């Protein structure tokens, strides 16, 4: 018997006993640099908006049915999971006047970034948070939440979640609220109180309260920042911090907002975190791994881990503003976050 046949025979006999020789792992599975199946990709706003409008009359956000009228962005490299990256999910939700998306809770953490409409609110942990364009609202892990619409026109927002990460840990739990609607209580988590001082009683001690970052506060801060020196790789960029810890927006994901002035370009870099972007205002181009992606208001794109990327505002007179969500918080505690500065890429 040849050596190869001997080895095949050995592998077969081991497999019968649920044992596997490490010699069976191909050398390519030990790359020098991180490799990801996630592909750079851009989703046009027109396609997302169309999908929501088509689902508008066919899908109702009802318990035991769809729960939410939501569509999600599927990365071409993650067809099996239908997620936007290996850690993060960007979804878009539409709610009609008078509708209630029923209350529930889950082990996944979520953020809402509000895009269109007026008059809807989200109730998180019995806190009524009225949604306005550009607001960021947190639904921390295991917090009860429902959405209701008291306005006159459809409302649309981004749902950002850590679903694939929680899935990979196999700790998904989901629970419907015991009752049709959640109660509302007096405001307990006033963000403005969380500057340098905060109450010492009650559940204000929770490390991850359902915070509401209002665009009317964030935008002036961003404009003010834009009077100074930009960050080389992100322009005028801010992170939505947890004011109680100074840490990331949520334990498993963090959000950011960045402004690029007309004509402004950033330098190229790469990092082991993955970032999902939403073009909130303006238009521009982002080069990812040598591939050019042109975006305009409403478009979304993903920068997969360890891909070189740089941004440019290509408008002559309009600021560009990008909202983003990243998975750095699940890398940093384990020393797995790495960043590298690069050379300018082709194109631009
Ligand atoms: Fe939910
Ligand atoms: Fe980056």
Structure description:
The chain folds into two domains: 1-30; 41-341, Jelly Rolls (Sandwich), CATH 2.60.120. The protein is built from four helices and 22 strands. It has helices at residues 3-16, 45-56, 163-168, 215-225; strands at 41-43, 70-72, 89-95, 100-106, 110-116, 120-124, 127-130, 136-139, 145-149, 155-161, 174-176, 212-213, 236-239, 254-260, 269-271, 275-281, 283-288, 291-296, 300-303, 309-313, 320-326, 339-341. It has a six-stranded antiparallel beta sheet with strand order 1-19-16-21-14-13. Strands 2-3-10-5-8-12 form a six-stranded antiparallel beta sheet. A hairpin with a 2-residue loop joins strand 6 (120-124) and strand 7. The longest helix has 14 residues, at 3-16. The model has no long low-confidence stretch (mean pLDDT 93). The structure holds fe (ii) ion (FE2) (2 copies). One fe (ii) ion binds next to strand 15.
Features:
mainly beta, Jelly Rolls, 2 domains, six-stranded antiparallel beta sheet, binds fe (ii) ion
**Which strand order does the major sheet show?**
1-19-16-21-14-13
| Amino- and carboxy-terminal Cα gap | 60 Å
**Run of helices and strands:** HEHEEEEEEEEEHEEHEEEEEEEEEE
Name of the top-level CATH class of the largest domain: Mainly Beta
Oligomer: single chain
